[in-house]
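Methods — Computational structure assignment.
A single polypeptide chain was analysed. Its primary sequence is given first, followed by the predicted tertiary structure written as C-alpha cells.
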Amino acid sequence: MELKGIHHVSALTAKAAENLDFYTNVLGMRLVKKTVNQDDTYVYHLFYADEKGNPGTDLTFFEIPMLARNYRGVSSISNTFLRVPNDAALAYWKKRFMDYNVEHADIKEQAGRKILPFIDHEGQQLTLISDEMNQGVAPGSPWNKSPVPVQYGITGLGPIQLTVENAEPTVKILTDILGFRLKEYNPSPIKGQADIKIYETGEGGSGAQVYLEERKDLPAAQLGRGGVHHVAFRVQDEETLRKWVDRLRAARIANSGFVDRYYFRSLYFREPNGILFELATDGPGFDIDEPIEHLGESLALPSFLEPQREQIEAKLKPLKTQS
C-alpha cells in the first residue's frame, strides 16, 4: 500500500482562456484533457502534463469565473514545484521568463538542488526544480510539439509544499497514516521560523516529496484564484485504493469513500490543518476516451456526463487549443 509519489495538483483559475495561454504557450506544457468540473459541469477542468499525461506530471485547474484572488497563509498548499531536466534548463527558463515578463526570483539552491521560483499570471507560487542530481521517481517526457525545446521542457511535478501553523498533527498523518518518511531538514528562508521538514514516499526523489513548512507569523490562507485546491498522491490501482478507504475508516478519519473520476479513481480527506488530500490511481489514464496524439483537442466528457453534452457545451466559452 506504499504511495508511489505525487499524482497531481489541482489549482484554481478565474479565466480558463488566460490560464490555457500561460501554461501551454509560456510554460510549454501539453493540455492533455479539456473537460469539466464533475461537481459543477458548467465550468472547465483543464489538465496540463507531459506528452502522454502520465501520473505525476499533471497540474490541473478548476475554472471559477469572478473568483477573488488567493491570500497566502497557513493551512495551505503554498508552493508547487515543477521538474526540469538539469541546471542548464533553469538558465533557459530564467531568460524565457524575462522575455515573457513572468515574475521570478534568481536561481538558487535548496535542499541540494537548484531551483527557480516564479509566479504565474494569477499569482500562484511555483518553482522550477532541477533534476541534475535526482534519484527516485522517474520524470515524464515533454511534448515534442511544445513551444519549449524538449531538452528544457517541464517533465512533471516536483515536491509539494504545505504551510501550517502547527506541524505536529500533519506529521502524524503523513507518517503514521500515509507512510511518508522524514528525509531531511532545510532551513527556513524566514528568520525565526522552524526548519522545513522534507518527507518522501515510494522511490523518493523530487516526484515523491512533501515539504512541510511551519509558520507562526502568518494568518490563515484564503483560497482563491492562484491558489491550490488539493494535492493527490499516487496509488497503484483500484484494489489498493479500496484498501486505503478501509484504512482511513479504521483510523476514524472522515473521507469521501471511493470516487470514480473516470480517468482515475479517487479518495479524498482533509488532514488536521484543513488541507485537502486525495489518493488517486495511476489508471485508467487520459487515453481512455481520446487517442494519445489528439489529447486535449476536444471537450472530453466522462461517459456518465455524455448525455448532457449539448447542455454543457452551450454553457461553456470555446477555448482555442493546441493541435
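Note: The chain is about 15% helix and 35% strand.
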